[in-house]
Automatic annotation (TrEMBL):
<keyword id="KW-0677">Repeat</keyword>
<feature type="repeat" description="NHL">
    <location>
        <begin position="119"/>
        <end position="149"/>
    </location>
</feature>
<dbReference type="InterPro" id="IPR001258">
    <property type="entry name" value="NHL_repeat"/>
</dbReference>
<protein>
    <submittedName>
        <fullName>Nhl repeat-containing protein, putative</fullName>
    </submittedName>
</protein>
<feature type="repeat" description="NHL">
    <location>
        <begin position="168"/>
        <end position="203"/>
    </location>
</feature>
<dbReference type="Pfam" id="PF01436">
    <property type="entry name" value="NHL"/>
</dbReference>
<dbReference type="InterPro" id="IPR011042">
    <property type="entry name" value="6-blade_b-propeller_TolB-like"/>
</dbReference>
């Protein structure tokens, strides 16, 4: 059984942020008070990041990220970004737009004070009502917790890849990517490379909510349901869970009774579907969903009837600056919903955090500098279902790199991984599916 409605699922609900609305947005924002509009006109602006990888703090484009992934907002309106790659840190962006490092900064597995803590490819984020920030620490196969004072601890997992229920360090995960938390403090996890959805009680006890012993596509209850590389997760207002089932190019729902159903799915032969390889997911209070798809650099809307709708002026082929000089997405990952109906989205290919605001249909596009060395979008986005030991022009739909990728002393877990079929998995990878 699932818990109650979410108060802050990291990707589902946000409350306050001092962001100036885009010009011409007033009428669109007003319409959200009457309910979420379908297929609204959008304009993308850059909140943080200058298009180059790095680790600098500061305001706006003075900030640099190495591998921005999950994004969440707290009750005060502060933004948080999970920054993997060479940074392995959690970044905070305050109401004035200034970025600082909240915790971490080196690769490892350590608890304690913010500067002593270490992560290994942090991914999804979620915040509870008390201000605790939960981190899917993908490379460490653990769910970490950052208290309001910045102290980092481990909620569940022992640092090793596995598939075991239990309490705290007695439980094991295999490359968890998504997290959400409900009003009772129950944390839900997409255990990505076990193809399962897990539940963590406030005391750290881990149980399996849904998913069988293999990857697949099947609805049903408990182990009857099958997923294929689930990533993003969000809690709806009614307490249902919504899953970005990446490998199946589908959006799945887990009802409060634990039954899994399919909300929407791409047809197998439709390579241009808005539902292709969804990663980030967010839920509105009136039944709409938003998904970030790295396969085509898109952010799409799912209506309560299960129809995939493109946001106007966002559904464009990604190209430097866009034909009109406006900002374009390349590899959207994490997605968070603002109270006015606008969105915050991380883009792993351009090392940026964007705001997608509602505007009127005749609003002029906002010019922006093209990201330096922007990846070609003609390349097939492969992560997270292609082997990490293969050379790719663009490796991953969440952690792209230009040129061939032949591995490093350590693994970039957002940059490609095992699909459960390759036999010569790169040494040290936790992503060899265990069954």
């Amino acid at each position: 059984m699932l818990g109650g409605a979410a108060v802050g699922g990291g990707v589902a609900y946000v409350l306050v942020h001092k962001t100036k609305p885009a010009d011409g947005a007033a009428s669109a924002h007003a319409s959200t008070a009457q309910g979420t509009p379908a297929g609204w006109h959008a304009r993308i602006t850059t909140m943080a990041g200058d298009g180059l990888p790095g680790s600098s703090n500061g305001s706006g484009k003075r900030t640099r990220f190495a591998d921005p992934f999950g994004v969440a907002l707290d009750r005060q309106g502060n933004l948080y970004v999970a920054d993997g790659g060479d940074n392995n840190s959690i970044r905070k962006i305050d109401l004035d737009g200034v970025t600082t490092t909240l915790a971490g900064g080196t690769e490892g597995y350590a608890e304690g004070a913010p500067t002593a803590a270490a992560f290994n490819t942090p991914s999804g984020l979620a915040i509870d009502a008390a201000g605790n920030l939960y981190v899917a620490d993908t490379g460490n196969n653990a769910i970490r917790k950052i208290g309001p004072d910045g102290t980092v601890s481990t909620l569940a997992g022992d640092g090793l890849a596995g598939d075991k229920d239990g309490k705290g360090a007695g439980a094991q995960f295999n490359g968890p990517i998504g997290v959400a938390v409900d009003a009772a403090g129950v944390v839900y996890v997409t255990d990505t490379y076990n193809d399962r959805i897990r539940r963590i009680a406030p005391d750290g006890t881990v149980t399996t909510v849904a998913g069988g012993k293999r990857a697949g596509m099947a609805d049903g209850a408990g182990a009857q349901a099958l997923f294929d590389t689930p990533t993003g997760i969000a809690l709806g207002a009614s307490g249902a869970l919504y899953i970005a089932d990446t490998g199946n190019s589908a959006i799945r729902k887990i009802g409060k009774d634990g039954t899994v159903s399919t909300v929407a799915a791409a047809k197998e032969d439709d390579r241009d579907s808005l539902l292709r390889s969804p990663v980030g997911i967010a839920a509105t209070t009136d039944g709409f969903l938003y998904i970030a798809s790295g396969a085509h650099g898109r952010v799409a809307q799912i209506t309560p009837q299960g129809e995939a709708v493109a946001l106007q002026d966002v559904d464009h082929p990604a190209r430097p600056g866009g034909a009109d000089g406006s900002v374009r997405l390349y590899a959207p990952r994490g997605i968070a919903l603002y109270k006015d109906g606008s969105l915050f989205v991380t883009d792993g290919a351009t090392f940026r955090l964007h705001h997608i605001g509602m505007v009127s249909a005749d609003t002029e596009a906002l010019a922006d500098e093209p990201p330096p060395g922007a990846p070609s979008h003609s390349a097939t986005m492969l992560w997270p279902v292609a082997p990490q030991n293969k050379a790719h022009e663009v490796v991953g739909l969440m952690g792209e790199v230009r040129g061939d990728f032949n591995g490093e002393a350590r693994d970039h877990f957002h940059s490609g991984m095992d699909d459960g079929e390759a036999t010569d998995v790169a040494s040290g990878s936790c992503y060899d599916k265990l069954r």
